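Onboarding guide, step 5: your first structure request.
Type a short instruction followed by the sequence, for example:

Predict the 3D structure of this protein.
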Amino acid sequence: MFRSRAARRLLTCTALTLATAGFDDYARAQDKLETAYLISFSRIRVGDITATLAFGDSDYTISAHVRAGGIMKLLVEGEGSFTTRGTVKNGHPMAANFMSRIVSNRATFDVEMVLDDGTVKELMAEPPLPTSGIVSISEADRQAVVDPLTAMMFSVSSSEGLAPEACRRTLPIFDGRERYDLKLAFKRTDHVVAEKGYAGPVVVCSVQYDPIAGHRASAPLVKYLSEGRDMEIALAPAPGMHLLAPFRVSVTGRVANLVIEANRFETTARSQTVTDPK
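The system replies with structure tokens like these:
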């Protein structure tokens, strides 16, 4: 069961932060990145995430599923499923549809969004968005945004790769209920090893959470994430796919650390690059 809106946000952000990836200047038909992550709190396993990215020359799909349990039951107990579908325009992903469902013992929270060039055209949220007690969402908050899954599909050139430029961006995210920015900056390079799949260098970005609208200013998690918390995300290249994807996310606190790290990070090329024979 979800103890609070802040707890529900934690489950959503945990899944969505790790379910995303990045495009280069082109995509190959039906290539896939398949990942699995373990969520640990104070080095104790408290949940898991599975995510798949499939993309072609003109479209892409991202799906993710998250389950929380163990000590995490102090905050949340439930499962979340998330899906984004969109098109690839000039090498850049543009979401068309985003759906999320978070199920607990007490309630089910559904979101469906239709987007056009970064603007939310249609939105369904059940239960409906609250009308009091939150920072109100304006029409401007629904423009020039990305859904949480597409948000970190970093469109980087081949020359950038794991360079600091991969981290230098602000992600304007709207998840159907809340609008927030994730501000990234280069921190360092590192080396990681997954049990299945990737082993090699990663670029590590610091992350600053900036709530914009749809949240309760007094919510514990909002305060926790926005008050100088040390957060970072490590991005790994998906071999053969010309993209970067989250490999590890960590939040360092005074009492305990939350770490979400891949134990599977594998790519599958279903077809070769399509070229114009001219």
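Each response can be followed by summary notes, for example: The CA atoms of residues 231 and 251 lie 5 Å apart.
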